[in-house]
Specification:
Length: about 300
Amino acid sequence: MEIFISLPAQTLELFDDSGLLLRRYAVSTARNGAGELSGSHCTPRGRHLIRARIGAGCAPNTVFVRRRPTGELWTPELAAQAPGRDWILARILWLSGCEPGRNRLGSIDTMRRYIYLHGCPDDAPMGVPGSIGCVRMRNRDIIELFDRVPLYTPVEIAEYRVVGGDWPALRAGARVVRERVFIGEKGIAPALEWDEFDSDPLCRHVVAVDAAGNAIGTGRLLADEAAGRGKDRSGGSGRMGRIAVLPAWRGQGVGGSLLRRLLEQASQAGMRQVRLHARADAQAFYRRFGFVAEGEPFMETGSPHVLMRRGL
């Protein structure tokens, strides 16, 4: 299991161990935005894990103070008696940072800041920032999530989101990233980079964008039928490719988020399997998402690659 929280999208996504999406929830993070400093009332970024699970078996509207049930159940009448109170309800998943110097130890320690995933009143808005640092969820959603995830489940909180669509919708962002990475860095000829498959109706694209809306990563999923390798266009299998992340965003989970969204699109299209050409030195990354290497390495774009495949 792995949890990904997008601050720009105000969503929490739960993935299985192979990267397939299990659930997507609307959430509400800090109204003060992203930040790690104690007292900032901001939501911390980076890699975390669930350090404690609190509230198993409690009623959905159970009120917690300092992680202990008060004996109260939230009602509109109770809320009217304490206007402005930051209600923590139902369940608590207490987060601990995994990156010393960023979200762990000292004045930036997520756990010492008491940052939780927790339930909140039914009338609290979701999908927009509104908390004082924690990640708010609907009571029914936090209870469902609580029952699914064990201790030490990884949680990534990021200042980017991943969108999917066709070439007309995502062309501008995808071109920025691919021109920078494939043409600029890797020296691939433009005539090879831009092909007729980008605009095929069965070709699906994903683009990661930062909080300002700038493209920072991209990838595509090409149905075999789109490339003329099948008699029908049902999308039974496909090939992932053109996966790239801008240098400033590498090592921050963007590549994994792109791959997970491509897997989601493949599943939604009814594909039974997908494959890709992985750089030989990147096989471990793709194995995390269930891909298995086949055959011997081969040269592609000037470097060793290997065919990798997984079922859906």
